[in-house]
Design a protein that fits this description.
By secondary structure, the protein is α/β, with parallel strands linked by helices. About 20% of the residues lie in helices and about 25% in strands. It has 2 domains: about 210 residues, FAD/NAD(P)-binding domain; about 120 residues, 3-Layer(bba) Sandwich (FAD/NAD(P)-binding domain). Helix 1 packs parallel to helix 2 and helix 3 runs parallel beside helix 4. It is elongated. The structure holds flavin-adenine dinucleotide. Flavin-adenine dinucleotide binds next to helix 1 and helix 5.
């Protein structure tokens, strides 16, 4: 039984910054994340520019997450990916965190940083579609350059679909957007831009079939049904943007459920503490007056949650960490960096 000081549930921005800060406070730290990668819901919009993070010039979300992950690894926390926390219960002096693979994790404190829960893209309901996910059927865009000079079809009419279409206009050979309703529902300015671009927009339309010559390889053409009539089009890539299903199934023990059971948020009773001593919350999952549901808000929560965890374990400890430049452990680990300053 390996006992950690802090176990963080969720490896999004709040979890990652909590891990960094926990290391800074000399705590033995673990992150448990359901998805195969760290970064949280920022993974949904990896190519989007972030403009509103203090001290950070506009940055592509993917790069921002890389930076956050690198920073989180400074003190080498233990990372468990593709692992879903199902229950958290208190034993005498520690918590037992049970995960979907049947493992029990042991920790003196827990920081819940599960954000909006587990996001899963709504998949295309066409038989056999799954096998193309390895080739040219996409639910997110990781590297936009992949689509250079390709004929790209995007299915969806919301912000995600229209934003991708606009981003792809200067890169792709052609962009076709199909949507099952009569009007696109995305932001007007983006819709206007798309309409003026010459991209093909097919309303009242949906994908009915994906076709390839060789079953094992890629989609070569698609069948689109528009107003009851089928047309066939050759495509290099198909992007599905039908939204996300959100699962908020962290099965809390009754003792740590928020007061209102219909509310999935964790209520902070101050300094990101919950009603259960030893369990803290950070990021979008936490509710308190004036909470900011943005990246910058997750950082403040992470600091508060880690400092609260430190004090819970050691009431004599400093209430907050020294500024990072005064932290000896940090200096040791970053001597090369300091030498350059
Ligand atoms: C489309 C979009 C655009 C945005 N743009 C901006 C922006 O420009 N600027 C800005 O500041 N903010 C922006 N935000 C908000 C920002 O993304 C969030 O505030 C931030 O991601 C919250 O981080 P978090 O770590 O609290 O939660 P999340 O990012 O949701 O991460 C939570 C993590 O917990 C994991 N998890 C959940 N349940 C479990 C479980 N039971 N077991 C294990 N793991 C679990 C999830 O898989 C996820 O990885 C945007 C959000 C969206 C959706």
């Amino acid at each position: 039984m390996e006992l950690f000081d802090v176990t963080i549930v969720g490896g999004g921005p709040a979890g990652l910054y909590s891990a960094f800060y926990s290391g800074l406070r000399d705590l033995k730290t673990k992150i448990i994340e359901f998805q195969p990668t760290l970064g949280g819901k920022v993974n949904i919009f990896l190519e989007k520019m972030l403009w509103d993070v203090g001290g950070q010039p506009p940055i592509v979300a993917a790069q921002f997450i890389d930076n956050l992950v690198n920073q989180a690894m400074t003190f080498q926390p233990t990372i468990c990916l593709e692992t879903k926390v199902q229950t958290i219960r208190k034993e005498q002096h520690y918590f037992v965190i049970e995960t979907n693979d049947g493992t029990a994790h042991y920790s003196k404190t827990v920081i819940i940083a599960t954000g909006g829960g587990i996001y899963k893209p709504i998949k295309l309901a066409i038989d056999g579609a799954k096998k193309y996910e390895m080739t040219n059927l996409h639910y997110t865009i990781k590297v936009i350059d992949r689509f250079r000079n390709h004929d790209v079809l995007i299915s969806g009419g919301g912000n995600g679909a229209v934003d991708w279409a606009v981003e792809l206009l200067p890169i792709a050979k052609s962009v076709t957007l199909i949507y099952r309703k009569e009007e696109l529902t995305a932001h007007e300015a983006q819709v206007r831009k798309l309409r003026e671009s010459g991209a093909s927009i097919m309303l009242n339309s949906e994908l009915v079939s994906l076709q390839s010559n060789d079953e094992k390889t890629a989609i070569e053409q698609v069948v689109i049904c528009q107003n009851g009539e089928n047309t066939t089009a050759k495509m290099d890539d198909i992007i599905i943007s039908h939204g996300y299903d959100r699962e908020v199934s962290l099965d809390f023990d009754a003792a740590i459920r928020p007061e209102r059971k219909d509310d999935y948020y964790l209520q902070s009773i101050g300094k990101c503490q919950t009603t259960v001593p030893g369990i803290f919350g950070a990021g979008d999952i936490v509710a308190y007056e004036d909470k900011v549901n943005l990246l910058i808000g997750t950082f403040q929560d992470a600091v508060l949650a880690v400092n609260s965890a430190k004090l819970y374990m050691n009431p004599e400890a400093n209430h907050y960490a020294m500024v990072s430049s005064h932290n000896e452990k940090f200096r040791e680990k970053n001597q090369a960096l300091y030498a350059q300053i």
